[in-house]
Amino acid sequence: MSAVKLDGKATAAKIKADLTTRVAALKERGITPGLGTVLVGDDPGSQIYVAGKHRDCAEVGIASIRVDLPASATQAEVEAAIDELNASPECTGYIVQLPLPRHLDAMALLERMDPAKDADGLHPINLGRLVHMVDAPLPCTPHGIVLLLQEYGVPIKGAEVAVVGRGITVGRSLGLLLTRRSENATVTLCHTGTQDLAGHVRRADIVVAAAGVPDLITRDMVKPGAAVLDVGVSRVNGKIAGDVALDVAEVAGFLTPNPGGVGPMTRALLLSNVVEAAERAQ
Ligand SMILES: Nc1nc(=O)c2c([nH]1)NC[C@@H]1CN(c3ccc(C(=O)N[C@@H](CCC(=O)O)C(=O)O)cc3)C=[N+]21
């Protein structure tokens, strides 16, 4: 048996086609959505991601504003960049690329952002809205995962989901998203303190691996026919290594390629948050 490919690249292309139309409609009304990025330091991985986001913007007609600061930037300097984007009418949404250098207080910076311009959906106000289950920009990776499952008709309602990893950007937020009434999944949030990871994963109809540990999810842990989504982006010898071992494809019913799975969906949903913010603001 070989798993159906959950093609994030193709699904992201569809989302981007829809966004291109909406951006054109906004422009006719004199509104140009603009994504800002704040990048601190010169981590090569982060440079690549940020460059990719600006390329995506160009593809759908979104303007982009790039703020690059040295690794030595002070808290006050990053705050000044945030204040400027909050005030800039050209910037309808922006992100502060994570992780930030350790000497910076990331939480204080996130809180300083205008929640209405939060393209990542990671502002504490917007995460709080997600907890309260009221409308807010959604975290991009979790939202992308839900749309990818829906695109391939993988049932979410009533499904047992094992989310592996409790990080804010993926695991914890995805747990909140999937347990809303509209999704109605049952979520087990696994983490480094989980006693029997294999036992939890084995029961799952949907497995989301977002731990950042290469090959954490092995073939013997996956229920035959389950949908498996690989969020891992570790680098091993310069190549991207996912959290899911390759031979999981032999037992899973659905599987994301990596690259080409969750990553492109994350980027498409970032653009979507920028366009929605611009639509709300008009
Ligand atoms: N504030 C903030 N928001 C983020 O969304 C954010 C962040 N910080 N910090 C870093 C992580 C990582 N991340 C990725 C997004 C897309 C791909 C992606 O599209 N990857 C391609 C492969 C790209 C390659 O080959 O390097 C793929 O999966 O097909 C990867 C990684 C967003 N992040």
UniProtKB/TrEMBL annotation:
Residues 139-281 form the Tetrahydrofolate dehydrogenase/cyclohydrolase NAD(P)-binding domain. NADP(+) binds at G165, R166, G167, V233. It comes from the Bacteria. GO terms for molecular function: methenyltetrahydrofolate cyclohydrolase activity; methylenetetrahydrofolate dehydrogenase (NADP+) activity. The keyword Amino-acid biosynthesis applies. Catalyzes the oxidation of 5,10-methylenetetrahydrofolate to 5,10-methenyltetrahydrofolate and then the hydrolysis of 5,10-methenyltetrahydrofolate to 10-formyltetrahydrofolate. Belongs to the tetrahydrofolate dehydrogenase/cyclohydrolase family. This is Bifunctional protein FolD. It comes from Nonomuraea angiospora.
